[in-house]
Design goal:
Blueprint (H helix, E strand, L loop, with lengths): L6 E6 L2 E6 L7 E6 L5 E3 L20 E7 L13 E4 L5 E14 L24 E10 L4 H4 L9 E3 L8 E3 L3 E5 L3 E5 L11 H4 E3 L7 E3 L1 H9 L1 H4 L3 E7 L2 E15 L2 E14 L5 E12 L4 E7 L7 E2 L5 E10 L3 E11 L5 E12 L14
Parallel strand pairs: 7-15
Antiparallel strand pairs: 1-2, 3-4, 3-5, 5-12, 6-7, 6-12, 7-8, 8-11, 9-10, 13-14, 15-16, 16-17, 17-21, 18-19, 18-20, 18-22, 22-23
Keywords: DNA damage, DNA repair, Mitochondrion, Nucleus, Phosphoprotein, Transit peptide
Subcellular location: Mitochondrion matrix; Nucleus
Organism: Mandrillus leucophaeus
């Protein structure tokens, strides 16, 4: 996560930029190779640190795309705020905030052990605290450079027809934590390339930031609130591998005279150490309110076995689960391998699968 004392190399594809914010002057120029998702902030306001020629795409030149602002330690970013993702390095724009409850088991690590919870998973009592996340759009120019480390079609919805298993996604829609945002400004009236940018936002040079919500964005947020809402975030660290889980309720469908409830869960894996590790296996336990307990084992996640290193410390993906009950729990472990061939298990924090009790009608895709 970004802090003012941090120095971190950020990757976009095979290209890197580094930032050193200790004692930095603000604002600071933000540069990119034209047509590529690579960034290089200036070391100071007078001396620029550019991409090296060996990393610069052939035939490309660096162009200034904006100026960094001081990251907010308090308060929220407004709709229309441009930012660079501090972990995955993509350009984006804030649509609106979510106030989530963060259940951080690392903070609760000193708490006394409690009895096993109803899901059968021994755990410590964890109290949630309010934490700000944002619904954002990802610049389409950067999607190819982050696709190996973060899914750009991770926000999915139930389709609006009878197939209870049909899902669809809005490309370039993401959820971002407050500390992931490195804010910047731009003089470009359309600084983010996304098909929804001009549909949702209007340029107004009298405002700061100079992009304000159109009525279409407010209506879209209101109508789809139940299926977009981010409410709970769960986090736990094992042997310097931090796992963050965000579950989303997607709705209910009827299938073969029974109700099927769907959830999406987004997982981020972060290597907080300098040692290289690779994810090899997943092991899930899924408990349903109907009384069933399912065990799922498999190689990797979403068909991949990502390597987490100092240069590329994070991997993020989304997956889905369905139950024939209105609620349940999930927990488990990821098995990682070290360069010497040894293995270790990383805990996935237990999280609840809850449905909307006041749901009147099932969602029928996104409403516009």
């Amino acid at each position: 996560m970004a802090t003012c004392a941090a120095r971190r190399a950020l990757a976009v594809g095979s290209r890197w930029w580094s930032r050193s914010l200790t004692g930095a002057r603000w604002p600071r120029p933000l540069c990119a190779a034209a047509g590529a998702g690579a960034f290089s902030p200036a070391a100071t306001t007078t001396t620029r640190r550019h991409l090296s020629s060996r990393n610069r795409p052939e035939g490309k030149v660096l162009e200034t795309v904006g100026v960094f602002e001081v990251p907010k330690q308090n308060g929220k970013y407004e709709t229309g705020q441009l930012f660079l993702h501090s972990i995955f390095g993509y350009r984006g724009v804030v649509l609106f905030p979510w106030q989530a409850r963060l259940y951080d088991r690392d903070v609760a690590s000193a708490a006394p052990e409690k009895a096993e919870n109803p899901a059968g998973h021994g755990s410590k009592e964890v109290k949630g605290k309010t934490h700000t996340y944002y619904q954002v759009l990802i610049d389409a120019r950067d999607c190819p450079h982050i696709s190996q480390r973060s899914q750009t079609e991770a926000v999915t919805f139930l389709a609006n027809h009878d197939d209870s298993r049909a899902l669809y996604a809005i490309p370039g829609l993401d959820y971002v934590s407050h500390e992931d945002i490195l804010p910047y400004t731009s003089t470009d009236q359309v600084p983010i390339q996304h098909e929804l940018f001009e549909r949702f936002l209007l340029y107004d040079q009298t405002k700061a930031p100079p992009f304000v919500a159109r009525e279409t964005l407010r209506a879209w947020q209101e109508k789809n609130h139940p299926w977009l809402e981010l409410s709970d975030v769960h986090r736990e660290t094992t042997e310097n591998i931090r796992v963050t889980v965000i579950p989303f309720y997607m709705g209910m469908r009827e299938a073969q005279n029974s109700h099927v409830y769907w959830w999406r869960y987004c997982i981020r894996l972060e290597n907080l150490d300098s040692d290289v590790v690779q994810l090899r296996e997943r092991h899930w336990r899924i408990f349903s309110l109907s009384g069933t307990l399912e065990t799922v084992r498999g190689r990797g996640v979403v068909g991949r076995e990502p390597v987490l290193s100092k240069e590329q410390p994070a991997f993020q993906y989304s997956s889905h689960v369905s139950l024939q009950a209105s609620s349940g729990h999930m927990w488990g472990t990821f098995r990682f391998e070290r360069p010497d061939g040894s293995h270790f298990d990383v805990r996935i924090p237990p999280f609840s699968l809850e449905s909307n009790k006041d749901e009147k009608t099932p969602p029928s895709g996104l409403h516009w």
